[in-house]
Every structure is written in C-alpha cells, then in structure tokens.
Amino acid sequence: MPTPDDATVKGLEGEVLTIRALLSLWGHRVRDHASVPQIRLDLTNAGLDTVPDFAVGALDDEVAIVQIAHERDTVADIDDDATGHSQADDSEEPVGVLPQAAMRVHDLPCAHRVVSITPDEPLSAAMGRMAEHGYSQLPVIDTSGTLHGVVTWASIVHMHATGRRTCLAGAISSEYEIVNASAHLLPVLPAIRAHEFVLVRAADGQVSGIVTSADLAGEFGTVARPFFTLGEIERRLRRCLRRVYDEADIQKVHKKKTSVDEMMFGEYIRLLDNEERWDKLGWRLVDKDHFVGLLTRVKDVRNTVMHFNAPSLRAEQLDLLDSFVSMLRLYDPDYGATGLG
Questions:
Q1: Is the bond preceding residue 4 a cis peptide, omega within 30 degrees?
Q2: Which strands form 178-180's sheet, in the order they lie side by side?
C-alpha cells in the first residue's frame, strides 16, 4: 500500500477530514490489523494524533489532526506503583463488551463491486452474465452511470408469463431498493430480506454494488465467528482462573478489583505471567511463557475485533483463536461447568 512521505504526514496538522479520507491517504479502505497500526505509527512519528481517535466511530465521521499532547508522552508508559497496572489498560475494552461502532453498508466488500449490463445489450448477454457469476439479479446501467432498473430471473419468468416481447427492455424490473453506502446496515436488513437484495448508491450517486441475502450470510460467518470464539475463550478462561485465584491474588494485579470477573484481558495476562501465581494454577505440563505468549496474541486479535468496524481477520488469526479455544476446552470441559459465567 502507498504510504505518504514524512512531509505529507506532517502537513496534515490542523486538517479536519473524514476517517475514510484519512485511510485513503495510506491506500486503505477499511480499518484492520494492518491499516490502523501503520497510520498510527506514521502520525506518532510526526508528532500527531487524531481527535477523536480514528480507530473508532463511523468511516464518514470527521477527525482533527492535532499535535500529540505533551502530557500524554509522560504518563502513557508509567505504571501505577500502587495498583501495578499501566495507563494503557484504561483504554482496554472490558471483557464482554461488543464494538461501539455500528457496521454500515459500505463496510461490506460487496458494496464496492458491481457487475451490470447496458440497456442496448441483448437479453441473452444478461442471462449469460448472471449464469456466469451465479447472480440472481443484474442492474441495468448505461454508459453515463444512469440506473434503468434490474433484471432478475424472476423478472425474466414474469416477462414470458405475461406475453411481453422477449428482450432486455421487457425483462427490466423497477422493483428494487437502493440504499446509500453510508447507511447503517441493521436498518437495511428488512429490505434485503424482502427483496433478497439491495442496490448500493455511492457518494457520487451511482450504483457501486449489490448486497444480497447470500452476502449477508457469508458476512455473518466472517464477522460472527471471531466474536463467538473470543466469547468462549473469555468464558472458559474466567472459569479456570476463578477456581484458583482469590481476592489477594487479584489485588496484586489491580488493588481496586476483587474478582476475576472484574478484570480486563490484559490483567489476566499479568496475573498469569508470574511464576508463583502460575504454579498455583496447577497446569504442570503447560509452559507458562508459551501460554502467556499465546494469550497475548489472542488479546491483540481481540483488540482488533473490538475496535475496528469491518473486522476482517487473516486466516492465521482465526486459526490462532480456534487452536487456543481448543486448548482451553481441555482445561475447562463443559461437563465441569457450573454455569455459563
């Protein structure tokens, strides 16, 4: 991905732009494990930050590029001697909290690709294109970008059933919904369910993509899988820790907390990254450093999922979650559970 040079980054100071525009300067379209750390690093190296944080909120929200507050540099890495926890923990999402940024239509990859046909092409071309791509619908868009309607398998059947002339114009249907790319996704779901698809309109007014029921099913698997897996990891981990660590153990990590259920994910790591406390866990055949290292990697993946709207994880990140939860199942089998907590 292209990266702006130092002078360009420094020149952003004082600018107000959308998060989408900020991402595009680095050649990115969404916030993920790659784009956010890179942009944050480049801004930090230039002595800059965004207000509010560009890692949260909608992509069309605006952020201001400002100088990093000097006081932040002096406290960010300081540990609280009395509590043993770093200031960085204050920004960590509490266990069980879902992302605060709602998904929008443009967060779906299918909202940015569209296969269409022009009004002067034959019906056979439309049918061939739909069959080739496995589509049930095809927008009819002329060379100027004007939408003339959609052709669907249902509209083709209706054309024959009503005795209309067999041609592309006879198969064009006006029964469709079109939504803005910036629209929140949840309110659009009823329209997708009713019509089995919606067309997506970009900021320039032209059709930029199609969202179908099948797209939503695939996207649900992509988005939901990490949430469910992380939820199971946290649930099993809490149960394992709750069995052996008491208030005294917890307060060695954070003096204001009294139970495992009050702790944040990073505090679980510090709880275990201690030889005496690790031995208390009783996992004799598990290497502490290896387990804590895996747990730290899981925490990083969790932060990616919790902070970015469009949480698309790499295959190796999903594999990490799957292997880690499988390991926890060995130490916390469901038949030994006394509840879901």
A1: no
A2: 178-180, 197-201, 207-212
> Is residue 38 within 8 Å of 26, Cβ to Cβ?
yes
**pTM attached to this predicted model:** 0.52
Tokens representing 261 are 């259920």
Contact predicate 258/251, CB 8 Å: yes
Q: How many helices (H) and strands (E) does the chain have?
A: 14, 9
* CB neighbour class for 193 (10 Å; exposed up to 12, middle 13-18, buried from 19): exposed
Q: What are the strands, taking DSSP E only, across the chain?
A: 16-18, 48-51, 62-67, 137-141, 147-152, 172-173, 178-180, 197-201, 207-212
Nearest to 95 by CA among 293, 302, 294: 302
pLDDT tens string 100-158: 455 688 878 889 989 999 999 999 999 999 999 899 999 999 999 999 999 999 999 99
- Regions of the chain with pLDDT less than 70: 1-2, 32-34, 69-103, 223, 306-312, 334-341
Instruction: Tell whether the torsion through CA atoms of 44, 46, 52 and 53 is positive or negative.
Output: negative
Helix, strand, coil percentages (3-state) for the chain, rounded to 5, are 50, 15, 35
Handedness of CA 70, 75, 76, 77 (dihedral sign): positive
Task: Pull the structure tokens for residue 97.
Answer: 């909290």
Contact 264, 89 (CB under 8 A): yes
Pair 186, 209: CB distance under 8 Å: no
- Residue-level pLDDT at 312: 65
- DSSP sequence for 17-73: EEHHHHHHHTT-SS--TTHHHHHHHHHHHTTEEEES-TTSS-TTSEEEEEEPPHHHH
